[in-house]
Write a structure and sequence with these properties.
The chain is mainly alpha-helical and about 375 residues long. The chain has 17 helices and seven strands. It has a three-stranded antiparallel sheet with strand order 5-7-6, with no helix packed on it. It is elongated.
Length: about 375
């Protein structure tokens, strides 16, 4: 290899490894007039790869020398170093300035986009006034349960005048039972005089047992654990009416619903129980027990004895911690139920019912 030596004002030129274009001047301390001194290049630069910069970002390969004055960065996407020629941005600073007219246009475009979005929302969602007007156009009205009950009662009154509309009246009673098993709805039914407008005429429709049966079903459903309704039904005389239905030669289906209604009024209501006992309720039960037994009638007899047993349990298991316990005890004591059962000979009937229950149980299993 040919070693090229140069004497430059008594200075030794060194070429750095990382920057071959950068030269460092080192003072040798010798007289510059000595032509025999030599400055030798310590590194051979012929094989060094030099980075050639342009105005575009380029990747810096490992081992490449980087000239001075370049913009160098690390590409965050690739993780590699890149460089390009330095550009004086002060000369192009005017290009980065926004024209006021352009700003106004940009703001206008933003407002236009917002208006377009709000227009889309208005097309997708309708206001409450628009919904109301559309419901009025199709003659649609959302009814409360009270309004439905009131409408059914009014329709029942209108149909009473036409004997041929019995089936429609029965359907109304079926719908009323669905609503009146709810506590508040049953009380609302009383406020619109439903007893006189619907229940009493239906219960007295002796020629239409379907009306009697569904009316008794409504009475039982509405009176379940509802003291206000129980009082109203007692005052309406339904205890006596239901007793007479049980003692009359009507269908077993109607008698079964009447017993269901009577039990709903009597349970946990000692005043109604006293009316039942004083009106001959146990005597009615005794007469039913003497009827010729059938499978359906035996079911009614068992339910009667279950009711009597429940009334006995109420007296024996009175919760004295209740505020009304003292008053309830006074009302219970008005009737000695055990003694009354002996007088009307219901105890033999109870023994007979046990055999009835065994027969019914066997027939059900077979």
């Amino acid at each position: 290899m040919f070693v090229y030596s140069v004497i430059l004002f008594s200075a030794l030129v060194r070429v750095t490894k990382m920057n071959p274009n950068e030269m460092i001047v080192v003072d040798t301390g010798e007289d510059s007039s000595d032509d025999s001194d030599e400055a030798s290049v310590e590194h051979d630069v012929s094989g060094v790869d030099i980075f050639v910069a342009t105005s575009e970002w380029q990747e810096i390969k490992p081992g490449q020398g980087i000239p001075r004055g370049l913009h160098v960065r690390i590409n965050m996407e690739t993780g590699k170093r890149e460089a390009k020629l330095y550009q004086d941005e002060s000369k192009d600073s005017t290009k980065n300035r926004y024209d006021p007219e352009e700003l106004k246009q940009a703001l206008k475009n933003i407002n236009d986009e917002r208006k377009a979005d709000s227009q889309q929302d208005s097309n997708r969602f309708r206001s409450i006034h628009e919904l109301k007007s559309e419901f009025e156009e199709v003659n649609t009205k959302v009814e409360t349960e009270f309004e439905i009950i009131d409408r059914l009662v009014l329709a029942f009154e209108q149909l009473k005048q036409e004997e041929s509309e019995t089936e429609a009246m029965v359907n109304i009673l079926v719908n009323l039972e669905y609503y009146l098993h709810k506590y508040d709805n049953a009380i609302d039914f009383l406020t619109i005089k439903g007893i006189d407008r619907v229940l009493r005429p239906s219960l007295n429709a002796s020629q239409v047992p379907e009306l009697q049966q569904n009316a008794a079903f409504i009475i039982g459903s509405a009176a379940q654990s509802n003291p206000k309704v129980q009082i109203a039904f007692l005052e309406a005389g339904f205890v006596q009416s239901l007793m007479w239905k049980l003692d009359s030669p009507i269908s077993v289906e109607v008698r079964s619903k009447c017993l269901y209604a009577l039990a709903a009024i009597l349970r946990n209501f000692p005043e109604a129980q006293n009316v039942f006992f004083s009106s001959g309720g146990l005597e009615v039960f005794s007469r039913v027990f003497k009827e010729n037994p059938t499978e359906n009638l035996n079911k009614i007899k068992i339910k009667m004895l279950t009711l009597v047993q429940d009334l006995l349990d109420e007296r024996d298991n009175l919760d004295e911690s209740l505020p009304s316990a003292a008053e309830r005890k006074i009302q219970y004591d008005k009737t000695d139920l055990q003694d009354l059962m002996k007088k009307i000979r219901l105890v033999p009937g109870v023994q007979m019912s046990r055999s009835i229950g065994r027969v019914y149980t066997r027939s059900s299993r077979s």
